[in-house]
Amino acid sequence: MPTPPRSLLAAAVVLMLLLLLSPAGAQETCSGIAPAPRRRGAWMSVASFGGRGDGQTLNTAAFARAVARIESRRGARGGTLLYVPPGVWLTGPFNLTSHMTLFLARGAVIRATQDTSSWPLVDPLPSYGRGRELPGGRYMSLIHGNGLQDVFITGENGTIDGQGSVWWDMWKKRTLPFTRPHLLELMYSTDVIVSNVVFQDSPFWNIHPVYCSNVVIANVTVLAPHDSPNTDGIDLDSCNNVCIEDSYISAGDDLISIKSGWDEYGIAFGRPSSGITIRRITGSGPFAGFAVGSETSGGVENVLVEHLNLFSMGVGIHIKTNSGRGGFIRNITVSEVTLNGARYGLRIAGDVGGHPDTSYNPNVLPVVHSVTIKNVWGQNIRQAGLIRGIRNSVFSRICLSNVKLYGSASIGPWKCRDVSGGALDVQPSPCTELASTSETGFCTT
């Protein structure tokens, strides 16, 4: 086995320091959520398995052979690093394995083939019951893993390029046969770090951990045109113990969204998203900067979001569910948000999102309780906000504290119904459903 390049070893050391130390030396970091990147006991290059980074050769088999070799060495001390050298590595979908690092060198691009006929189908997620866009299965993500442990996707800010335009065109023309693929999806996996990589032009959602625990996503960049359909940046789905920080996202839908299953399938699967921290995110997009839902049938709880810098958004903060969803959304805190340009500063709504089929029970109502939005400053806002609960499931203990949203002289006022909680130091004046509520002791600056 040849000795790894000195630049690779140096970059690995720098990466460990970046992940273990805060950017400013005093800020909180994700340290402790997942194991720190370890020095792998072995390394190999995809070029050693017949791969060519010329932008023309299809490297799907080379990646598969490399991962198979790593899997065969699973007992190797510390696991194995798969090195992707500088170049453009055209490939179809491939799987990762446990105890491995996928490392993209500076100048390395893993580029998805646009031959959609070569993309395999996988089963629908059990908490969704069908593909998210269409009935039946769904296309496998470009980089995929199932039941893995101790996996790092990292590097020197190399790029994972989904070449999604062919998929977007099919979506717009309504010629998609199945649900589009993600760029990265890890299922039922633990101890995951995704860092120092650029995700670009995903066919569908960019980064999708589902049924995972102990996940860190840090120092990533996500890029897609604002008119690319449903190219969410990061979607956490029925995951626990997750930290996302220090990242830039500009995409065609929600920048970060937390989900947990869809109607009767999510209720039956019963796995909530919980224990999630999101901090120091900058970004722009046509929908929400931070969202919960709308698929929340397994429940979402214990979420802390802070230090968001958002611009040119559809909605700054969006919490969304619907009748028939069931589940719960509770103990959510969003604070220290700067918002420059948005149709809505805030929306909390109980009538958002469709249903997988006609088998859902419309009388199964979600519970939304203990949501705090504080220390928010926005300018160029068209509508302050909307908080619209469900008549037979009033959204309760909703707290707005030190929320200042400014726009033109005609900025739209707050609109509320079927909600209770409190509002302190809110501009423009809060809706009467919150302002007249006597239960404000829980809602402080």
Automatic annotation (TrEMBL):
Pfam families the record matches: Glyco_hydro_28
Q: Supply one GO molecular-function term.
A: polygalacturonase activity
Q: Which residues form the signal peptide?
A: 1-26
The Gene Ontology biological process annotation of the record reads:
carbohydrate metabolic process
Its keywords, alphabetically, are: Glycosidase, Hydrolase, Signal
Domain of life where this protein originates: Eukaryota
Q: Which family does it belong to?
A: Belongs to the glycosyl hydrolase 28 family.
Q: What PANTHER family does the record point to?
A: OS05G0587000 PROTEIN, PECTIN LYASE-RELATED
Name of this chain's protein = Pectate lyase superfamily protein domain-containing protein
Species whose genome carries this gene:
Setaria viridis
